[in-house]
Amino acid sequence: MTTVAVVTGAARGVGRGTALVLAEAGATVYLTDRESRDRRYSELPGTVEDTAEQVDERGGRGIPVPLDHTDDAAVAALFERVRAEHGGLDLLVANAFNGNALPFRSGPFWTLPLEHWRNMFDNGVRGHLVAAWHAAPLLIERKGLLVFTGLAQPGAEVIANHLFYDLAMTSVSRLAHDAAHDLRPHGVTALAVSPGFTRTEAIMAAFGGGRPPGSDSIEFPGRAVRALLEDPQVSRHAGRTITVADLAAEYGLTDVDEDVPSGAGRP
C-alpha cells in the first residue's frame, strides 16, 4: 500500500526536504504552505507547487495545497480531502512555523515584539495542534505516525535567550508528549523531531549562499522521519523529543553529501 503523508510548511526548509525523502519511497505527499505561485509572502525561493514538482521528479506523487494554517476551515478541508481520496493517513509531519516572520534577536522579554506570540503560537504551536486534531482519526485508521518538528535543548535556561521561542519550542515538546498519551491506545505513535543547524533557504541567504560549517542538508531531518516511519518498533519513541543527530546514530543515517552520520553533537 502506498504511504500517504501530509507535510505542512513544505515550500521550503525542513518541510521540503522531508517531502523529497518521502518521495524517494514512492509516497503520496500532500504539501501545504501559504507560499504559492499565486501568492508570495517572502522573497526566498520556493513555493508549495515547486516542492510538488520535485516530489514527482523523485518518484513520489506531490499534491500541492496552498494553505494558511491559521485558517481552521481550510485545514479541515485538507483532511476531509485526504479522507475522501485515501480513507486514512500514514504520516503527518506538522512543521509549519512562522517564527522568522520578524527579525530574530535575543533579549529580555519586555524588549521583544509581542507579535512574536502570533507568529510562533498561532502559526506554529496552534497550527500543529489543529493539524493533529484533524489528522488523528485518519492516522488511527492506518496506525500511523505523527511527527512534530520542534527543538530539543536539554538544560537550556531559556532557549535562544528568547522567551517567546522558548515557550513555543517547549510547548511543541509537551504537545508531542500529550498527543502520544492519547494516541498510544489507538496504535498511533506521536513524537517530536529536533533538527540541528540546517541549511534552509533562510540560513543560506544569511550566509550569502555559502555552506555554513557544521550544518545539515534540509533532507537530513527527512531521512530521520523516514527511518521512524519504517521502524516497526517506533512506538518506543512515543512522546519523546528526539534530535536528528540521535536518530542518525540509532538508525545509521548519513546526510545526502556525507559518508558518515551528520549532526552528532551539534546544538
How would you describe the overall organization of this protein?
With 267 residues, the protein is α/β, with parallel strands linked by helices. It is 42% helix and 13% strand. Strands 3-2-1-4-5-6-7 form a seven-stranded parallel β-sheet, with helices on both faces. Helix 3 packs parallel to helix 4 and helix 7 (219-229) crosses helix 8. The longest helix has 28 residues, at 115-142. The chain starts with a strand and ends in a 16-residue tail after the last helix.
Structure annotation, total helices: 8
Cα-atom Rg, whole angstroms? 17 Å
Poorly predicted spans: 262-267
Q: Which structural class matches the secondary elements?
A: alpha/beta
Number of strands: 7
Overall geometry comes to globular
Order of helices and strands: EHEHEHEHEHEHHEH
Could you give the order of strands across the largest sheet?
A: 3-2-1-4-5-6-7
Fraction of residues in H or I helices:
40-55%
Mean pLDDT reading: 93
Distance between the termini: 37 Å
Largest sheet geometry:
7 strands, parallel
Strand content: 5-15%
Helix-strand layout with pairing:
Blueprint: E1 4-8, H1 13-24, E2 28-33, H2 48-57, E3 61-66, H3 72-86, E4 91-94, H4 115-142, E5 145-149, H5 163-183, E6 189-194, H6 201-206, H7 219-229, E7 241-243, H8 244-251
Helix pairs in contact: 1-2, 1-7, 3-4, 4-5, 7-8
